[in-house]
Amino acid sequence: MTVIKLAANGISGIALAVLAACSSTQQSTNNTTLQPISTQTGTQTMPVMNHSVGVFSAPQRPIQAANQIIYDYQRLDSTLAAVKNGDDNAAMQFLATQSDSAMGESVRNEWLKSLGRRGQSGLFAQEYARVHPDGRHQETRCYAHLFGVENNAQFVNDLLEETGKLPAGCNTLLQARASSLNPSRAWRRVRGLLSSGQSTDAANLAAALGSPLNSGSGYGAQENMLRSVISQDAQKSPDAAAARLQAMAGKLNSEQVGYAWGVLGLAHAKNQNFSTALSYYHLADRKQLNTEQFEWYARSALRSQNWQALDNIIASMPAKLQNDPTWLYWRARSLAALGNNGQARSLYQKAAQSGRNFYAVLSTEELGQRINTRNNVGDATQANVQQLSRDGAINRALTLFTNAQQSGNSRMRRQAQNEWRYAVRSMNETTLLTAAQLAHNHQFYDMAIYSADRTDHALNFNLRYLMPYRDLVVSYAQQHGVDPAWVYGLIRQESRFVMGAQSSAGAQGLMQVMPATAREIARKIGMNSSDLYTMNGNIRMGTWYMADARRNLQNNEILATAGYNAGPGRARRWQGSNMEGAIYAETIPFNETRDYVKKVMTNTVYYSSLLGGQPSLKQRMGVVPARY
Asked: Which of 213, 230, 241, 255 could bond 195 through an S-S bridge, CB–CB 3.0 to 4.6 Å?
């Protein structure tokens, strides 16, 4: 949960709620399908259309009466509660009218978990076959493996590699398979559970492995001893824990010691003690590191710009992590710094092909190119949009959305989102862009973006980077001296243009301004604090706050963006000496804020391109100055 404060109060992250109406202008054509357009801007050629795009194809799912949809929604929560308590009749009665829907899928998954807990393997197998593979919850799949309905060794191995909390059914699966698990990886999971405070699950797995934590000898006893070093309390004082670790090292095996150093290295890294973190990490067993530990090992080297160490660390990551755009880019940077430009270029190319994310854009620029925001397809035709609106799953989503909009029911709006995601799940790219246009036409802006964002080859940037409320955004941005592209980049991340958005912390509207912050802003610029709940007032307050955050954070957009999400005090605390903006962003210790800054700034560059501004992310990130 995001909570931002203006000198102490704040603005918070993305929320779900009711939409207020406003539209933006879109170009239209009379094409019968989305047509490829050959384009080239600057040095980057747009992706070529291929068979994966597909032709428009509207599903033919039957339409339900609106009153039935609303009635089923109204009984969804009570049905889920009953099903979790083992009421099979409640599940069957609900699925009689809502089988092929997101509501039905959620009920069936909860029913399957209940059947799994009760060992009802026959009925489980029957119902499991009715859930689309993409809609099966992780715990549902765990029970499927327990009953022999599925037998995917990679799935079980991925569970074992997870060192943190898993659903109960997945813990049961691992305990049942204990005799066939890789012992080294199984004990790694035990110590991972101990380090994350999951003591009961750790004890159960250790017992299943044949050496309980409370045993007098063996692995269990050693892991129990290690708890004093790697527990959450111990991580609060990592140097004291390190001293204990050194004192007991002769009583532990190399894997246990190697794991502990990774835990303590992570604790220092997240406290921004990067040099100490590196020294601890260098003592760790890299085979024992989990994803978070490995990433902070790399970030510790990155913060000191130790390119040789960074290259070595990334090269030793598991293949899946190495191939993440983040580490493709930073390994390319390290190789370039070390003079290996050929291999660096190869990695930049691979990262650039990963989509339109932060590191794909930076990698594109390292290759001497720029983003291109010219659409490579025409707009969806009105006939196709109308045909898609007659699909039952799409109609269900729009029925819930319209009713939520009229009634101010944020929970219903959330279910409308779920139904929309369910409806578009198997669509090809041409149909997805038609769905995006349909959502846009209904001012269901967040789902328009969601649908357009799912395409890789057919690209409509006007739908992917919507610009509703344009007159207000541009006017107030100019009035407060901030770039409209930055404002749009932030709104897209904060609320996806949902006017009635409200976070769990109470932040409101398009720009997610906290009421306390709104009162302070209102006093300073002569507004009524109740204007927070209007489109005009929310945008005016948010743009003023962006400008104020930038003024108070050394006139730096990156610091201001981090401060908008996590508070100006934290943004300052994360500064060091002058450093590249991308390094500052990557080493933010809050997962949400790190992701937020990268997404806001990437959005900003795309909006800047669409608005005729500077489309360079590298220039935009610039240098974050030293704290003064």
From this structure: 230
Please identify which residue in the block is written with the tokens 């009802």. 120
Helix (H, G, I), strand (E, B) or coil at 404: helix
Q: Tell me which DSSP letter residue 35 carries.
A: -
Reading the block at residue 504, the tokens are 């769990």
pLDDT in tens, 196-249: 999 999 999 999 999 999 887 888 999 999 999 999 999 999 999 999 999 998
Q: Would you tell me how many other CB atoms lie within 10 Å of the CB of residue 24?
A: 14
Sequence-distant (≥ 6) Cβ neighbours of residue 339 within 8 angstroms: none
Burial class (CB in 10 A: 0-12, 13-18, 19+), 115: buried
- Using the predicted structure, report yes or no on whether residue 342 has a pLDDT greater than 60: yes
Element (H, E) at 434: helix 429-441
Hey, how many other C-beta atoms are within 10 angstroms of the C-beta on 67? 9
Q: How far apart are CA 298 and CA 177, in angstroms?
A: 34
- Mean pLDDT of all residues in 578-587: 98
For 317, phi and psi rounded to 5 degrees?
Answer: -70, 155
**Average pLDDT, stretch 16-22?**
31
Q: Would you say 24 and 471 are in contact if contact means Cβ atoms under 8 Å apart? A: no
Kindly state the tokens that stand for 478: 């100019």
- Torsion, Cα of 289, 290, 293, 297 (10° steps): 60
**H-helix or E-strand spanning residue 537:** helix 535-552
Domains of the chain, with CATH numbers? 470-624 (1.10.530.10)
User: What's the mean pLDDT when you consider all of the chain?
Assistant: 91
Report the predicted TM-score, pTM, of the whole model to 2 decimal places: 0.91
Burial 454-490 (b: 16+ CB within 10 A, else e): bbebbbbbbbbbbbbbeebbbebbeebebbbbbbbbb
One-letter amino acid identity for 447?
Answer: M
pLDDT class of 614 with cuts at 50, 70, 90:
confident
User: With helix as H, strand as E and coil as C, how does 107-118 read?
Assistant: HHHHHHHHHHHC
CA distance 466 to 491: 10
Token code pair at residue 17? 């709620």
DSSP 565-616: HH-HHHHHHT--SSEEHHHHHHT-S-HHHHHHHHHHHHHHHHHHHHTTS---
Q: Name the residue type at position 192.
A: G
pLDDT band at 402 (very low <50, low <70, confident <90, very high): very high
- Residue identified by tokens 């800047």 is 608
Q: Hey, which residues are catalytic here?
A: 494
Residue 534 banded pLDDT, cuts 50, 70, 90: very high
Q: How far apart are CA 156 and CA 189, in angstroms?
A: 13
Residue 46 has a pLDDT of 33
Q: How many angstroms separate the CA atoms of 244 and 593, rounded?
A: 33
Contact 587, 302 (CB under 8 A): yes
Rounded Cα distance between 415 and 412, Å, is 5
- Three-state secondary structure call for residue 45: strand
What percent of the chain has a predicted confidence (pLDDT) above 70? Answer: 92
